[in-house]
Inverse folding.
């Protein structure tokens, strides 16, 4: 166990970190903070939800000269929501050191960002597209940057991002420190990374599995057409506090969110075609618990830290294992437990095995619940709610009428009637979910797997540049 006070960081940061409720450093923090303070280039890999943001954030803030008005640190993140979240975490870490942090991302008025840049931020967190935009307009000067971080480094170095990243790198001084962090780091991508790093230290937090042990991982074998009924029943049986359902495409996400609402769930979708204001408002409602089910494309797969996400459903199995690791990593964060259910059609079983080979973890088969199990699950929910209401008290005003009811009727019947009135019966409202084309059949053998960049993985790209077309959040 490493205490933050053993890590040679200033009292101001210690105070902020304490206020954030961090008691001791996580393993990746303990391993990389000292190296980073020495000025080493680092590739840091550790499981999802284990504090990588503070692992690069704490030493970065430690090294900011707060008397200097220049931008000294730059962090690049793949999505707008993540850029905002990272800037907020850094703001909290740097609060007592009075460090100025600014997030710049697409979809927000650029003039407003230009005005904010005039307030002399010392750290910028941004998405690639918008950072480049500012660099080209000369509203962002990176001549004094001494530290550059790629959060979700493997994603940032994927095709579709690499050109932008290289362009940004060329406006940052060469004698900078470069830090790369992610939960996944496939070898070919690590090799690309090493090209622009100086003698990097590879820090991998030793773990048997790539995924978090606190996440129970299941797969449900299901035909495409049955998926939605199975999802509804699982939601009824498992009653998640907050759930994320991942779908493969934007259309899928829209249809699923609509269908879930038709069946009485509080669901909203998030994907790259929505306005930025809408994306942020959906996420805010989800964090506040006004939405129970967030339906998302991979736009929400990486880095997002939303406490209280208890269940992740992969309505469609992801195309690559890395995506799986990040998607399910939205639960089971910072020591909490979580559950992940992955739907797989019979002909997609090869993908499931490839995921398992990469994560070094078997998924447990789960039988789809029946309608009556879903019904019972919902009744149990009501039962729990009644139990909670009794514990909370303040039911005095109901007692007189309750007594009256019990003089006229049998207590079990009274309770059953109350359960019936309060229970949301599993809904069979017909919904319209278009079939997704199944993934191309894949053998159960990772060696036969073509690279992530190969066009065979992007059968729906219609010849456009890979990745960018497939991902729906690059417009930043
Ligand atoms: N030392 C710590 N003690 C307790 N909580 C921590 C500590 N460090 C970070 N956290 C909290 O843990 C949560 C997860 O951290 P963070 O988002 O940095 O994880 P991550 O490793 O970047 O995950 P991902 O791979 O999904 O991006 C955050 O809410 C963060 O504030
Ligand atoms: Mg992260």
């Amino acid at each position: 166990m490493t205490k933050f006070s053993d890590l040679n960081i200033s009292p101001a940061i210690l105070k902020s970190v304490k206020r954030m409720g961090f008691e001791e450093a996580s393993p990746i923090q303990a391993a990389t903070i000292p190296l980073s303070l020495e000025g080493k280039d680092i590739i840091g890999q550790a499981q999802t939800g284990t504090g990588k943001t503070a692992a690069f954030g704490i030493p970065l803030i430690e090294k900011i000269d707060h008397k200097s008005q220049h931008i000294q640190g730059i962090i690049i993140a793949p999505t707008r929501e993540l850029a905002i979240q990272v800037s907020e975490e850094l703001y909290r870490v740097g609060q007592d050191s009075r460090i100025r942090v600014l997030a710049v991302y697409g979809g927000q008025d650029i003039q407003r960002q230009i005005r904010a840049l005039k307030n002399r931020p010392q750290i910028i967190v941004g998405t690639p597209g918008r950072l480049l935009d500012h660099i080209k307009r000369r509203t962002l000067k990176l001549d004094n940057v001494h530290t550059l971080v790629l959060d979700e480094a493997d994603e940032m170095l994927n095709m579709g991002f690499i050109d932008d990243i290289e362009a940004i790198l060329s406006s940052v001084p060469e004698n900078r420190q470069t830090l790369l962090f992610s939960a996944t780091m496939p070898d070919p991508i690590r090799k690309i990374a090493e090209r622009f790093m100086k003698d990097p230290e590879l820090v991998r937090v030793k773990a048997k599995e790539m995924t978090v042990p606190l996440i129970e991982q299941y797969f449900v074998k299901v035909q495409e057409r049955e998926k939605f009924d199975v999802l509804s029943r699982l939601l009824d049986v498992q009653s998640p506090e907050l759930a994320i359902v991942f779908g493969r495409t934007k259309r899928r996400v829209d249809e699923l969110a609509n269908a879930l609402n038709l069946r009485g769930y509080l669901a909203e979708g998030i994907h790259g075609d929505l306005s930025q204001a809408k994306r942020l408002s959906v996420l805010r409602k989800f964090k506040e618990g006004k939405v129970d089910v967030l339906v998302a494309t991979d736009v929400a797969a990486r880095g997002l830290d939303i406490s209280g996400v208890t269940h992740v459903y992969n309505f469609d199995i992801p195309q690559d294992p890395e995506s799986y690791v990040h998607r399910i990593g939205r639960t089971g964060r910072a020591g909490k437990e979580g559950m992940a259910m992955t739907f797989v059609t019979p002909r997609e079983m090869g993908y499931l095995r490839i995921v398992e080979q990469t994560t070094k973890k078997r998924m447990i088969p789960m039988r789809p619940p029946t309608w009556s199990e879903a019904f019972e699950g919902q009744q149990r929910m009501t039962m729990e709610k009644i139990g909670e209401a009794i514990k909370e008290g303040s039911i005095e005003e109901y007692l007189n009428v309750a007594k009256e009811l019990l003089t006229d009727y049998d207590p079990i019947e009274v309770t059953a009637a109350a359960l019936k009135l309060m229970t949301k019966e599993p809904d069979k409202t017909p919904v319209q979910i278009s079939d997704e084309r199944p993934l191309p059949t894949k053998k159960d053998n990772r060696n036969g797997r073509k690279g992530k960049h190969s066009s065979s993985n992007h059968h729906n790209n219609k010849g456009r540049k890979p990745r960018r077309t497939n991902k729906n959040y690059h417009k930043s």
